[in-house]
Amino acid sequence: MLCAVYKTRRKEGMYLYVPGKNAFDDVPEILMQKFGTPELVMLIPLDKRPQLAGVSKADLEAALKDKGFYLQMPPKEEDMLATHRVEQGLTPDVDNKR
């Protein structure tokens, strides 16, 4: 199976995988609106790839088969202020001071 990977300019690290170039028929319209204009990153022949970076190959293949697409979300950003507050012996939430 040939898988196309697209990125969005709206959210760093968010990727949309579909089963072929421009195969957006199964992607919900609301998702396409939020995703914006897809930019092709690469085409991946899944049959020839033993593993993928950032996504489980089994999860990807199952999603492509069942839903017709896979949306990879960016990793959760670390709250550096909360981390610093905890290191200082404070609560992580600024609203709950000490």
TrEMBL record:
YcgL domain: residues covered: 1-85
Signal peptide segment: none
SUPFAM superfamilies tied to this protein: YcgL-like
Starting at the broadest rank, the lineage of the source organism is:
Bacteria, Pseudomonadati, Pseudomonadota, Gammaproteobacteria, Alteromonadales
* Any Pfam family: YcgL
Which domain of life, per UniProt? Bacteria
Q: Which InterPro entries does the annotation name? A: YcgL-like_sf, YcgL_dom
Q: Which HAMAP family match?
A: UPF0745
The protein's matches in PANTHER family, at most eight in alphabetical order, are given as: PROTEIN YCGL (PTHR38109)
Query: What is the official name of this protein in its record?
Result: YcgL domain-containing protein BFC18_11355
